[in-house]
Amino acid sequence: MATFVNMLGSGIFMASAVLFFTRSVGLPLAQVALGLGIAALVGMLAGIPAGHLADRRGPREVYLLTLIIRAATMAALAFVHTFWLFVVLVCLTQLAQSAGGACRGPLVRGFAGTNPASYRAYLRSVANLAGCCGALAAGAAVQLDTRAAYLALIVGNATSFVACAAIITRLPSLPPIPVPTTVGRWIALKDKPYMAVTMLDAIMGIHGQVLVFALPVWIISHTHAPRWFVGAAVLVNTALVAALQVRASRGIDTSPAAGRAMRRSGLAFLIGMALIAATSTIPGWLAVTVMTLGVAAHTVGELWHAAGSLELQFRLAPPHAQGQYTGVFGLGTGLANIAAPSMLSLLCIAWGAPGWLLMGGIFVAVGLAAPAVVRWGERTRSDPAESV
Fold it and tell me: Domain tally for the chain?
């Protein structure tokens, strides 16, 4: 329930943030883009220390603090009228979001029970469903296009954090796991195999921007498909993830299985991107059909990547440092989100069909490298001194 409420509010904000700041607050689009970029960079700094704090002080308590900060900063956005106040508040919001993400790692590990892979897959399905519902709510407000409607979204998101905090308080506190005396403080940053897995996952994570960034521009500027398919593609992706994530995660409950899932996901991404690339020269009705198949193939890759990524994130992290390791993994995700728009603009939009195939080839290369890097990580888990 906490995941659904949290992601419902986040879905509302993500789908309407740019329009709120430009049309309601009155900031130029260039300033909004700059401020959000600064916030993304600043936010990456919070994950590792917050995760370490959660490991040592208890994840529930630190996570509650991040939710309170997010609620306060989100509510304060309703009073923004200047660029610098906007930058300060979105930076604080992003810091709390990154810190909260790192704290969720030990929380999920602590409450996952005997089947952690299925539990994590279930949480991801719930998060996708909530994000979709939030986007639909944001769409209604955008259609009204009034300040009152946009403020309702901001207040609704702030309220979702308060509600999430109230639900989290009902969970029992998880005591910190004792740290071996031979282990240093910032072990995640010294863990070379884990850093390598994080880097591969970050490159593979660029796929998350394909359907929400590259595909809409491709549909409008390079194909004869109707514009309404921009929204339909996202709905197809969301529905498939919500329906199939738990099933796709079955059997991906060991590090080798996760490595193989990453390899399969790279191949699925290549197939999906090849199908999308082919739509630039075919009629509109056929383009919709082929693109739907491409989105479906891309989503299959997303399902496998999510299952493999989550398994590696938790499997290769020592229990006493789950928060710190989650923070490192989040650092890779943040870098991917920053790099993705520029990379996809150059390859998929500027270069056209060859660029889509090249991007798919990059995903395949990463997937093929994943099993070997995972085996390296598995070997060093048996010798803690070697991993740091």
Answer: 2
